[in-house]
């Protein structure tokens, strides 16, 4: 196997310990063992540090001066909020926060509920569905596409681009990564052309969408550059779609693994927000977050040099027994629940309120309209091809209409 040392690839390389499909479907025993035996370790094959304890991951995520986000995502030449440091990050964050205020998000609830129910209308009569294809993909795609001003007929094209942007490589080899980079680059070029055409349209004729808001906004008296608008739009597409799709699917996955929870939530729907929080901790949509050390430092007693890449495994941190009592048990009403699945600090996920709301609405709609939701036994589960993502490509279920 060729060893990959290039910084360009370190963000997307799977670690050997999670190198099989079964381990990617059930990574937590592996992560628990790594947290206990080597809580901070350097992986030569991936040229990066792995951090597994809650305390260390929390420290890294809350200290952007020590652990920078300033880097290029593979294949992407546009800066995004994910890859900015203050002060520019603070300025951009304050701007786009206007589009994600609690009031704006709450006003979306009836519309998101109608989207979710329209999705379920197409499957309710047949007693089976693929959660990913029939619900978890279309709900966030439609919402994000509408927020950006994407044409309805192009929604699924957006999803295809989103899948490519978060894709990882199956092999730790230079040839495999070059092929992946070429695929990502083509998708980004197509996406930039598509979004660029919307930007030009909105400059001439603004509408009630995010791109129009970004075009009209100013920071220190200056308009945003086109590449900044495109960078934010691409971030919203990739992060918003993938995270929420996995959140909804992982929530249903747990409900099929613990059927008693279905009836508990039907009888007490007020528990659904807490249930979604525990899904985020127990089956996190994003299981790792990358940073770059800005200066020489020490984490967990290990000396880290400036420029070293550091990967915080939030899926491990979320099950750290020093932070969460009985961490491998799913507790619907767990309080407190300070999971790191949306990150922490200045880079806390901008779309977290929207993802939470979409997750709650999707699960509520399923439980209201379906009983005895079961995984379609005998169907092989295929993990998503990304080392930083925890999710599956399909999740078929059967149910009885209520």
Verbal overview:
The chain is an alpha+beta fold. It contains 17 helices and twelve strands. The strands form four sheets. The protein has a five-stranded mixed β-sheet, covered by helices on one side. It is globular and about 60 Å long. The termini are far apart. The N terminus is likely disordered.
Keywords summarizing the entry:
402 residues; alpha+beta; 5-stranded mixed beta sheet; 3-stranded antiparallel beta sheet; 17 helices
Binned, the helix content reads 40-55%
How far apart the termini lie comes to 53 Å
Strand arrangement across the biggest beta sheet: 1-2-10-7-3
> Which residues sit in consecutive blocks of at least 5 with pLDDT less than 50?
1-11, 72-78
- DSSP strand content: 5-15%
Rg calculated over all Cα atoms: 21 Å
Query: Could you state the order of secondary-structure elements as H and E?
Result: HHHEEHEHHHEHHHHHEEHHHEEEEHHEE
Note the overall shape.
globular
The total of helices stands at 17
How many strand elements?
Answer: 12
Mean pLDDT: 87
Largest sheet data = 5 strands, mixed
Structure classification: alpha+beta
Write a short abstract of this structure.
This protein has 402 residues and is an alpha+beta fold. It has helices at 7-10, 21-25, 28-37, 54-62, 88-97, 102-107, 109-121, 131-136, 138-148, 155-165, 174-204, 210-216, 226-257, 260-267, 272-282, 314-317, 352-369, and strands at 40-43, 48-51, 67-68, 128-130, 218-219, 222-223, 289-293, 297-299, 302-304, 309-312, 370-375, 396-401.
What layout of secondary structure does this protein have?
Layout: H1 7-10, H2 21-25, H3 28-37, E1 40-43, E2 48-51, H4 54-62, E3 67-68, H5 88-97, H6 102-107, H7 109-121, E4 128-130, H8 131-136, H9 138-148, H10 155-165, H11 174-204, H12 210-216, E5 218-219, E6 222-223, H13 226-257, H14 260-267, H15 272-282, E7 289-293, E8 297-299, E9 302-304, E10 309-312, H16 314-317, H17 352-369, E11 370-375, E12 396-401
Parallel strand pairs: 2-10
Antiparallel strand pairs: 1-2, 3-7, 4-12, 5-6, 7-10, 8-9, 11-12
């Amino acid at each position: 196997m060729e060893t990959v040392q290039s910084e360009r690839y370190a963000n997307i390389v799977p670690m050997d310990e999670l190198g099989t499909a079964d381990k990617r479907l059930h990574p937590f025993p592996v992560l628990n063992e790594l947290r206990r035996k080597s809580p901070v370790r350097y992986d030569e094959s991936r040229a990066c540090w792995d951090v597994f304890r809650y305390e260390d991951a929390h420290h890294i995520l809350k200290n952007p001066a020590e652990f920078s986000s300033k880097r290029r995502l593979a294949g992407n030449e546009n800066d995004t909020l994910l890859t900015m440091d203050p002060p520019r990050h603070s300025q951009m964050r304050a701007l786009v926060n206007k589009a994600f205020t609690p009031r704006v998000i709450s006003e979306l609830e009836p519309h998101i509920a109608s989207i979710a129910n329209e999705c379920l209308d197409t499957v309710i009569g047949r007693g089976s569905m693929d959660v990913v294809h029939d619900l978890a993909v279309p709900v966030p795609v439609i919402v994000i596409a509408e927020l950006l001003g994407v044409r309805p007929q192009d929604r699924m094209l957006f999803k295809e681009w989103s899948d490519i942007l978060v894709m990882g490589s199956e092999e730790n080899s230079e040839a495999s990564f070059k092929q992946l980079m070429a695929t990502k680059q083509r998708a980004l070029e197509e996406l930039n052309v598509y979004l660029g055409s919307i930007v030009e349209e909105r400059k001439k004729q603004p509408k009630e969408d995010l791109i129009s808001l970004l075009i009209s906004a100013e920071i220190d008296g200056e308009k945003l550059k086109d590449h900044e608008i495109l960078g934010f739009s691409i971030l919203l597409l990739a992060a918003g779609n993938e995270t929420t799709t996995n959140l909804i699917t992982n929530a249903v996955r747990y409900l099929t693994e613990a059927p008693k929870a279905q009836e508990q939530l039907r009888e007490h729907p007020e528990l659904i927000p807490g249930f979604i929080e525990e899904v985020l901790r127990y089956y996190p949509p994003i299981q790792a977050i990358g940073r770059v050390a800005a200066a020489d430092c020490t984490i967990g007693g290990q000396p880290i040099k400036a420029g070293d890449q550091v990967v915080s495994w939030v899926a491990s941190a979320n099950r750290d027994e020093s932070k969460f009592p009985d961490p491998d048990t799913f507790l619907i009403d767990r309080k407190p629940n300070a999971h790191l699945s949306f990150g922490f600090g200045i880079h806390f996920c901008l779309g977290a309120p929207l993802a939470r709301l979409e997750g709650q609405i999707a699960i509520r709609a399923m439980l209201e309209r379906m009983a005895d939701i079961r995984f379609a036994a005998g169907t092989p589960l295929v993990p998503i091809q990304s080392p930083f993502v925890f999710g599956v490509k399909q999740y078929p279920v059967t149910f009885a209409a209520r």
